[in-house]
Structures are given as C-alpha cells and as structure tokens.
C-alpha cells in the first residue's frame, strides 16, 4: 500500500462514517499527522491530497517547513510550552492545544506583535487523565469565557484525545461529551467564540469520532504506517 492508497482508504472510511450519521463527507477535514515522518513521505501525502498538516512539535515543524515549503495549512496538535508561543505563531495556522490561561495570553500577545489573528481550539481532557494535557471538562467553560475577549485569538472549537482503548466503541462517550460541551458553549452565544470545529478521532477511532460530530480527524499511522 502506498501513502496515496492509504489516504484513499481513509477517505472511504470518512465518507462511510459520514453517510452512517447523515453528514456530508465535505464537512470533515483530513489532517495528516507527521510526527517522526521523513520529508519524502510527507511530500507524498501532500501530493496525494490532505487538507491539513498536523505537527506535535514546534522545532520539528520549523525544520520540515524549511524543507517542504508551506502551501497547506499547518496545525499544532501537541502540548505547547508557553516559551515556544512566539515560534508557534510564526509556523501555524491553528493551534489545537490551548489548555490554560497563561498560554492563551502569551499567544495573544505574540499574535498581536505579529499583526495577525490566530485561530485556536481549546483542548479538553475529558477523562481527566493525569498524564495528558487539556483543561478538565468542568473547567473548560470558564477557560473559554476568559480567553474569548483576547483580541488576537479566535476560538474556533474544541479538541480532545480520549484514553486509549483496543475497541474504538469505548472512546465514544468521550467524543460525545466533547460534542455536548460544544453544544452547551454554543448555546451561550459568547461574543467572538465560534464552535464550528471538533478536532477528534485518530487512526483507531476516527469513524466513531465522525459519528459523534468530528470536523477534523487527525490521522498518523493510517496514512504513514507505524511510527519508528
Ligand atoms: C500522534 C497523534 C495523532 C495521530 O495518531 P495515529 O494513531 O497515528 O493516527 C493524533 N492526535 C495527536 C494529538 C497525536 O499526538
């Protein structure tokens, strides 16, 4: 299977899951997650067509963009240290991992200095796992209300990474909880807060995530094979 074959296969899976849940496949964007993937294989994926490049690490993204250029949107999906906010603002079109006030305030400051508005998602740790980033579910509404007025950030929705399960059905309640949070926030109609995006679902569980409302699925192994 080539990378183009893998992408075709995932697209079919996206379309099937969308159909099952009465959604349009066009409402779901495919992100290629490129952590630890070499430049030649990323180039293949870009040629075969993905909507978004997703990176976990700021330094890795910087090096890759220098090698590959940047014709597609690049999104940061990994944990972001506040002291890397400045570089992140230079490299990424959207940041999925905003999970605390200090980081949001620093990104806003750096985006203002760069003369741009930065699109962000609020990362929610739905299961409350100690080892994972993300704002706890119960604190997410307060964080969103606090971040919303920052003039150079534009909240576009929510992101989550559920606990790891062999059976993707077991991830469903976490995806559903994120969608329900999205609906509650949306109902508040906070100024400057968009809730259009739900970034959820990876290689093992993207079909379930789409059934629960995902608009961006983040696929690494399903496109590039197992990581080294
Ligand atoms: C690595 C990673 C993915 C992709 O996982 P796969 O199982 O390889 O599809 C998605 N989201 C995040 C945040 C990741 O770190």
Structural account:
The structure is a single chain. This protein has helices at 3-20, 39-48, 58-68, 85-91, 101-113, 140-147, 172-188, 206-211, 221-224, and strands at residues 29-33, 52-55, 74-76, 94-98, 118-125, 135-136, 153-160, 193-199, 216-219. It is an alpha/beta fold. Strands 1, 2, 3, 4, 5, 6, 7, 8 and 9 form a 9-stranded parallel beta sheet that branches. It is built from 9 helices and 9 strands. Helix content is 41%, strand content 20%. The chain has a single domain (3-222), classed as TIM Barrel (Alpha-Beta Barrel). α4 (85-91) crosses α5 (101-113). Residues 33, 35, 56, 77-78, 161, 202-204, 218-222 line the site of pyridoxal-5'-phosphate (PLP).
Mean pLDDT over all positions: 97
Work out the helicity level. 40-55%
CATH topology: TIM Barrel
Measure the end-to-end span: 18 Å
Radius of gyration: 17 Å
The number of strands is 9
Q: List unreliable stretches of 5+ residues.
A: none
**The CATH top-level class label:** Alpha Beta
Classify the secondary structure makeup into a structural class.
alpha/beta
The bound ligands are:
pyridoxal-5'-phosphate
Give the SSE order as H and E letters.
HEHEHEHEHEEHEHEHEH
